[in-house]
Design goal:
Layout (H helix, E strand, L loop, with lengths): L10 E2 L2 E2 L3 E14 L2 E14 L3 E5 L6 H9 L6 E6 L2 E2 L7 E4 L11 H12 L5 H14 L15 H14 L4 E5 L7 H18 L2 E5 L3 H7 L2 E5 L7 E6 L8 H6 L1 H15 L1
Parallel strand pairs: 5-10, 5-11, 8-9, 9-10
Antiparallel strand pairs: 1-2, 3-4, 3-6, 6-7, 11-12
The structure holds adenosine-5'-diphosphate and magnesium ion (MG).
């Protein structure tokens, strides 16, 4: 019998629809308040390619976290659609993992146990050995090989966020959503965790969307920086492609003339 390959021919920017991991269109978020409706996001469109790393910057209160939690399925969509993979987002799912500023670990449990909780849920069908391997693999990846049996409360903030990163990747999501994950860390620790994040992201070939208020972080990590307009009715105001090869070397980038062009572009956007 003859089989016909069905091709999706809807094209956008030279990419077919199935090459996008996230397809957000006409997104609106309206919060009811005592003084009437507050429209945070309106008619926001954004497409994210498979395996792409994008960062999102914008003024405080413009609606970045609102957008991210809507993609995560943790915040109801008022209007518009979000398609993740080929499914319309209707709620949270294991295909999308979130890393927040504070990893909210169970303090009395070990790093290992904190990662295992999620792994047990997502890989309930797997064997005990398989789950054990996954947890240990990701904890080692984030540099916690020697601390995995320490209690979370005994770990530094940076190490706790390493657990947060391991926990998210261990669920093997298709999309990783990060909301200012390093915002609370000192700059040295932040740099270390940026490197850990990019290394694991690169190996796992997943799509990442990261909110940051740090312009340098957004350039260093992302393929594209998405600039959101100030609210109310925020949308995507501008997009900057970061054309640096990977793996990227922090010190070398700081010497690259394009780095300052990118930086100026972003700062100009934020100042106007
Ligand atoms: N549950 C809510 N009810 C009403 N207003 C909200 C709610 N959550 C957020 N907001 C408002 O929506 C706007 C965007 O918030 P948020 O997405 O947290 O911004 P950002 O992450 O960019 O700082 C802010 O003005 C905030 O006060
Ligand atoms: Mg926020």
């Amino acid at each position: 019998m003859e089989t016909k390959e069905i091709k999706d021919t809807r094209e956008h920017n030279g990419l077919f629809r199935h090459e996008y991991m996230l397809d957000i269109s006409g997104l609106n978020k309206t919060y009811p308040t005592p003084n009437g409706d507050y429209v945070v996001l309106d008619d926001l469109d954004l497409k994210v390619k498979k395996e792409e790393f994008i960062s999102i910057i914008g003024h405080s209160g413009c609606g970045k976290s609102t957008l991210l939690t809507m993609i995560a399925g943790l915040n109801e969509i008022s209007k518009g659609t979000i398609i993740a993979g080929n499914k319309t987002v209707k709620g949270a799912g294991p295909d999308r993992a979130v890393i927040f500023q504070s990893p909210s670990l169970f303090p009395w449990m070990t790093a290992y146990e904190n990662v295992m909780i999620g792994v047990k849920q997502v890989f309930a069908h797997g064997s005990k050995k398989e789950r054990d391997d996954i947890v240990k693999y990701y904890l080692a990846k984030v540099g916690l090989e020697d601390s995995m049996f320490k209690k979370a409360k005994d770990l530094s903030q940076g190490m706790q966020q390493r657990v947060g990163i391991a926990r998210a990747f261990a669920l093997k999501p298709k999309v990783l959503l990060l909301d200012e994950p390093f915002g609370m860390l000192d700059s040295l620790t932040r740099g270390e965790l940026q490197d850990v994040l990019v290394e694991v992201w690169n190996q796992e070939k997943i799509t990442a969307v990261m909110i940051t208020h740090d312009v340098d972080e957004s350039i260093l990590l992302a393929d594209r920086v998405i600039m959101m307009t100030s609210g109310p009715r925020a949308k995507v105001g501008d997009i900057l492609e970061i054309d640096f090869e990977r793996p990227r070397d922090r010190a070398a980038l700081l010497d690259h003339p394009d780095y300052y062009k990118y930086r100026e572009h972003l700062i100009n956007f934020l100042e106007h």
